[in-house]
Structures are given as structure tokens and as C-alpha cells.
Amino acid sequence: MATIPDEFQNLLRPHLPFADSGALDAGDELAGLGLDSMSLVALLSDIEDRYDVELPDEIVDEATFATVGSLWSALSPLVGHADPTR
């Protein structure tokens, strides 16, 4: 699986209470790591603040927030990074 940038992992980690201290993998399920509806709202805010972007409504859906990789895949074009899942 593709590597998720450390910067993005560090942004995610505070919102994932069940994540261990190891690297997050693209296939890791966000819900399984503890992301719930309340932490999702906080994560969206942190993403927009950190990367100075506004996430388009069409990508804020269940599929985008299924895994670490699906979220990074949706976000990376907006922040100018290569998509690690392709």
C-alpha cells in the first residue's frame, strides 16, 4: 500500500483514539480507528485550517472518509501533493 505523508498522519492522529503509535496505512479504516461524527467535524476544520483549503461538498461523503487512503486521495489534489493510492 502507498505511504501516507507524515504531515497528514500527524493531522489525523488526534482524531483517531484507537490508532497506535505506528504509521497509518492507506487501508486503515477511519471508523475502526475511532473517527465518529463529532471528531469528523473537528477533523474537517483542522484539514481546512492546516492546508488553507475549503473541501468541496461533493467530496465530503462516506466514501471519502472510509479509509486513511481514501481521505488522502481526495485531499491531495487540493493541497498539491501526488495521490499515493494511484
TrEMBL record:
Q: Which Gene3D superfamilies match?
A: ACP-like
Q: Which InterPro entries match?
A: ACP-like_sf, PP-bd_ACP, Ppantetheine_attach_site
Residue ranges of every copy of the Carrier domain listed in the record? 2-79
Question: Which top-level group of life is the source organism from?
Answer: Bacteria
What keywords were assigned to this record? Phosphopantetheine, Phosphoprotein
**Record flagged with keyword Phosphoprotein:** yes
- What is the protein name given in its UniProt record? Phosphopantetheine-binding protein
The species this protein was found in? Actinokineospora xionganensis
